[in-house]
Amino acid sequence: MKKLIIAEKPSVAKNIADALGIRGRKNGYIEGEDYIITWVFGHLLQLYDVKDYDESRKSWRMENFPFIPEDFQYKIKSDNKNKKQADSGAERQMRIIQTLMEREDVEGVVSATDYDREGQIIADEIFLYLKNEKQVERLLLNEWTKDEVLSGLGKLRPNRELQPMQDAGFGRQIADWLIGINLTSVATVKYQNSNHNKVLNIGRVLLPTLKIIYDRDREIESFEKSKYYKLLVPFKTKDGKELEAVYYEAENEKFEDREALDKLSELLKGKEGRITEKEVERKKEYAPFLFNLSNLQGYVTSKNKGWTSEKVLKVAQELYEKKVITYPRTASSVLDESLKEKAARVLETVKKGMPYEKEIKFTDSKRIFDSKKVESHSAIIPTYVAPKNLTADEQIIYDAVRSRFLAQFLPVSESEETKLTIKMEDAPGVFIAKGRVQLEAGWKKAEAVTSKEVMMPPAERGESLTAGTLSVKEVVRKPPKHHTEKTLLRVMETCGKSYDEEESEEMMMAILSGFSIGTPATRAETIRKLKDVGYIKPKGKSLICTDLGRMMVETFPVKELFDLEYTGKLEKTLSDIEKNKFKKEDFLDMIKDFTADSVEAIKEDKLFASRVALPESVEIIGTCPECGNPVIESEKAFGCSNWKNGCGFTIWKNDKFIQSLGKKVSPEMVRLLLQNGKVGFHGLKSKRGNKFSAYLHYIKDEEKGYYSWKVEFID
Questions:
Q1: For the stretch 329-346, what's the b/e string if a residue is b when 16 or more beta carbons lie within 10 angstroms of its beta carbon?
Q2: CA spacing 20 to 30 A to 689: which of 4, 232, 647, 674?
Q3: Distance between CA atoms of residues 6 and 112, nearest Å
Q4: Does the pLDDT at position 498 exceed 60?
Q5: pTM exceeding the 0.85 threshold for the entire prediction
Q6: How far apart are CA 541 and CA 532, in angstroms?
């Protein structure tokens, strides 16, 4: 009797066959004495479309939604080019699998798909669809080397033990179908008369990711430029060596008043300084944690032009299937403690030939091995298999993974930091000079990290220094930068919660608990889809919102879908289902209620619309805070161009409050108000005739429904 093994891809099937020494390649499978190995190509099946349940619902009409089937059914996945017919390759492979499964000499089936919720249901869908009654066992591996395959086949688990993972996978799949199909259909039909004329993609993971990019764009736009000043002085030691110091008062080196620094500079001209304190500290810098998928994607996309997070995942998956790295779709940044012996073996293999080979020493450290911080899959590391014939892209990913692994077993990087506190007569504060010297590069050799050194000349406490020409430096505060794929992945991984890079144990555990946007395997696809549907666009390495993306965030009526906290809770619930802490049925009941409520909210909505089409000759003053359409000037007011659809946002030119302050409502005033949320004036006139300065805000009273002016006085 034989066992039928179903692998996730043909390349994985070949790895299993190689490990077992099987060479009998047939049409769609490989057969040996004890095993038959076949494969899928990802999902061979997909959930029914709405029209498959009811032909009368094939057209998108408002009255057809919400549509929530009692039982969710599957079919052979559709052809990419012609959605009306089944994919011929998937159909052929399903027939092969069914034939093999029904053979009398096949006593049982082994699911060898990826060890995650998506991999779990890729095979389970097939077992349910074909009504398989033979015993199913699970092969759970983190890599496809010969040793791991043979070891894994010796300790197969009953597939029923993976029921919680299956529930999480099907729960995710059905939830995304319910939200995506219902809300995308209704939104597209509802707003089809707007001039976007395209499908409005609505998704559980898509929209909160869009909101992250939108928030950063708005933060940059509303950033108010400002300056501060620093006082610098070059000192010379008794040996004629120079060092630069910065002036501090109350531990602050940033000053708003340039004039005060200029006066102090004149006062201190030609005077000496004296070193009152000298602090020398030896600092240790540990290697960054091993890569999980998000960190690998961020690292590679930030260092290599033209790379996307989706490309990193694709290439890493290829290396995994070539047996040279471990499973890439992981959220863990450490290794399970059971892998110590294996890691030591890998280290002996991959360190050979490195210029720093003699410095590498295996270390049993909690920063590397900690089972409490591992969920399903450990961090990404090389295997003991030496890579051959890698493409240029594969080499980039492999080198990154190998270098990060080797860095864990090199010495800690050490530097010496020197801080001199210098006092000058008549100065209320002190001058501080800092120097930094790298003593031991350590792990930085593996990742080619260069440290910026600021050499400090020999100088001792009590020594007098000669001051050179003092200078006041103007520093312009810069707005935050647009998100890149690296920074976006980090925010998605932590659901917007900030933490200290690499070091927060609490946040690492939060990531592993599932409180995030999407999963390591889906985030790259989400970013690509946002570009494809026209909600965001790349600008160099940056990602920015399009007009359609802004309109979605600002006016789409289902606000929960943009709420990072809400999205994080949904992902956390799926993670809890996988851990058997929550029931799939309860989760889906919640999603069904949310879907029905959201469909009704879209149907009743009166504001959301695409940008109103305007002639090129019309000057756009700004964006309406109510509906995101252009604000334009008319004879009597500045108002929203979407007034025909019910948007009543207006600022009247003869506004009595503005006139009472001695000012006029002008295009520039409205432009600044809409851009920054406020507009500043000098020379405003009070009722008593006094002049004052203030910011004016135009605020909506949500209960009464109208706007009024609020004054913020400027000291």
A1: bbbbbbbbeebeebbeeb
A2: 674
A3: 6
A4: no
A5: no
A6: 16
